[in-house]
């Protein structure tokens, strides 16, 4: 009989503890009724100012490098604007 009573009291105390924990968890998730204070007013933005770029003088481009060192010979260079030299363009015509 004592064993049965101990088991019942243990189950009752665990159930009570579970109900109390769930109640506290439910209360912790409810929003607080007091509103948050208004944020402080921000100062007015300053007017936009144009950036101050330094004066730059245009410089001439350096000369083109010699492309013969990589295998490009001026006699066999094709122009990009002329399509008649392209084998693909000849097939399309």
Outline the structure in words:
The N and C termini lie far apart (107 Å). The chain is an all-alpha fold and 93 residues long. The protein has helices spanning 2-28, 87-92. It has two helices and no strands. The model has no long low-confidence stretch (mean pLDDT 78).
Cα end-to-end separation: 107 Å
What is the ordering of alpha helices and beta strands?
Answer: HH
Task: Specify Rg, calculated over alpha carbons.
Answer: 43 Å
Rounded mean pLDDT is 78
- Number of discrete helical segments: 2
Return residue spans where pLDDT drops below 50 for at least 5 consecutive residues: none
Estimate percent helicity: 25-40%
Question: Largest beta sheet, briefly?
Answer: none
The number of distinct β-strands equals: 0
**Morphology:** elongated
Beta-strand fraction estimate = under 5%
Class by SSE composition = mainly alpha
Write a brief structural summary.
By secondary structure, this protein is an all-alpha fold.
Helix and strand topology:
Elements: H1 2-28, H2 87-92
Key features?
2 helices, 35% helix, single chain, mainly alpha, 93 residues
């Amino acid at each position: 009989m004592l064993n049965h009573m101990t088991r019942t009291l243990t189950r009752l105390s665990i159930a009570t503890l579970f109900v109390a924990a769930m109640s506290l968890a439910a209360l912790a998730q409810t929003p607080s009724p007091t509103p948050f204070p208004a944020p402080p007013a921000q100062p007015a933005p300053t007017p936009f100012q144009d950036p101050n770029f330094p004066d730059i003088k245009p410089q001439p481009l350096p000369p083109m490098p010699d492309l013969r060192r990589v295998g490009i010979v001026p006699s066999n260079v094709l122009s990009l604007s002329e399509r008649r030299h392209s084998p693909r363009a000849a097939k399309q015509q």
